[in-house]
Specification:
Layout lengths: L1 H19 L5 H21 L1 H10 L16 H20 L4
Length: 97
């Protein structure tokens, strides 16, 4: 479980690293991080095991989503991210088959 917790933190830090990688245009860096964020979100919503991990162990893979960087668009930070949080909370409230 410790390795899993660490991997979630590393995934978030990978996104932060990408935003600092000046060998890539800023636009491409931001887009890459937004794509990673969406991928993590889709897994958290769609994968029973991800939801089960949260429910049974209190480990939240959604913590891998990077939101606290001003280089990310305001629309993501103030609109999309809250939507993700709400949708994920709703999905977690429903009983899994």
């Amino acid at each position: 479980m410790a390795q899993l917790r660490t991997s979630i933190a590393i995934a978030r830090e990978w996104s932060r690293f990408l935003l600092h990688d000046e060998s890539i245009t800023e636009r491409d860096r931001v887009r890459a991080v937004l794509r990673l964020n969406e991928r993590v979100f889709r897994k958290c919503v769609g994968e029973h095991r991800f939801r089960q991990l949260f429910a049974e162990r209190g480990i939240d893979p959604f913590d891998a989503v990077l939101v606290d960087d001003d280089r990310l668009p305001e629309q993501f930070r103030h609109r999309r991210y809250p939507q993700m949080v709400d949708q994920l909370a709703e999905r977690r409230r429903r009983v899994d088959p």
